[in-house]
Fold this sequence. Notes:
about 35% helix, 14 helices, eight-stranded mixed β-sheet, alpha/beta, six-stranded parallel β-sheet
Amino acid sequence: MPDAPHSAASTPSKPLRVLIGADTFPPDVNGAANFASRLAAGLVERGHEVHVEAPAFNSKHGDFQEEHDGATFTVHRIYSWRWYPHDWLRFVLPWRSQAHAARLLDAIKPDVVHIQSHIVVGRGLARQAAKRGIRIIATNHFMPENMIEHTLLPKFLRRKAIQIAWNDAAKTFAFCEAVTSPSRKAADFLEAETNVRDVHAISCGIDASLYTPSLEKRTENRVVFVGRVTGEKHLDVLLKAMAALDPSLDAKLDIVGGGDLMNQLKQLAKDLGIAERVNFLGYVSDEQLRATLTRASVFAMPSIAELQSIATMEAMASALPVVAANAMALPHLVHDGENGYLFEPGRVSDLAAKLTDVLTASDEDYKRMQKWSLKYIEAHDIQRTISIFESLYRGEPVTDPVTDVSLDEQAS
């Protein structure tokens, strides 16, 4: 008689064996990779056995014990190829993904599979886990609109390609017992673009205790951005807004992160006459990132396609007021007039005006915005996120946490 399929629900009191499937994982630097790493580390700290399937980040592939976010677990690095239209992305050959998945699932025999995307690794794991009766949970960090510019497709074909990508996502998510996305806005967007229903809104979460908020009066005006230096982030809008600020503010901009537009944006800063006030820091250590956030005056996020924005949450945990585009999930983090301001996406003059509002705020108003940022970030605690996923892994009902209601709404 064959063995019964592994079921997380059958042993709710025991540690779980979890296989996380990720198409991007550290040393990649992006929100999806960071979340997968933090989730894996948090599960290990709670006594679970964690395995991760991810593309190899160089020619070396195989099974490795790796340390991420203070925890050690097994990462199964699959042979990958570089996607040259992108500055760092690597991918597993699609026609090999199910074979890789089958081998890992038979060797590991996980209680649950948690895929972080539907693209290649997640596609293979979902289909092979379904054949074996293994519970599948999916988290969607993917927006085709963010990736399409890194393809070689002509513009007139991109809208069609985006729809094909969403249809493809729906086919993979159909194998899953639960699908999540980092915010209610992102969950609603996923439901609107696919036939997937009942998508859970579960914050990626951060450990706010790692950041060092300072409520001391700032001695200089420093704007900071953290994220990939790519077209989807609309950093040209931020640079133009910096150039439009009153010179008497003597405002400086720190850009933390790397990407394919680094050289173009450096040239744009020169053309705008602000090169001496813009500091392109590239990739930095966690300690350097936290120090940069602590000394800043305001965080700016001009992107219009954020499913949540861990970088914005990190800024809030550092007690920074935030000026962000009024687009996608950012309004769920930035409550206009409370912990910062929202500006009309792409509108340089509005971004410059909102940055000015923060940089010229009275000490009392500035400190009030800082405190609201710290208050709002409490709802995004990583430990609560991990607890919710543990329940999903075991097939237990969950209630989505409320993370995007303003304090005024809570009080009413």
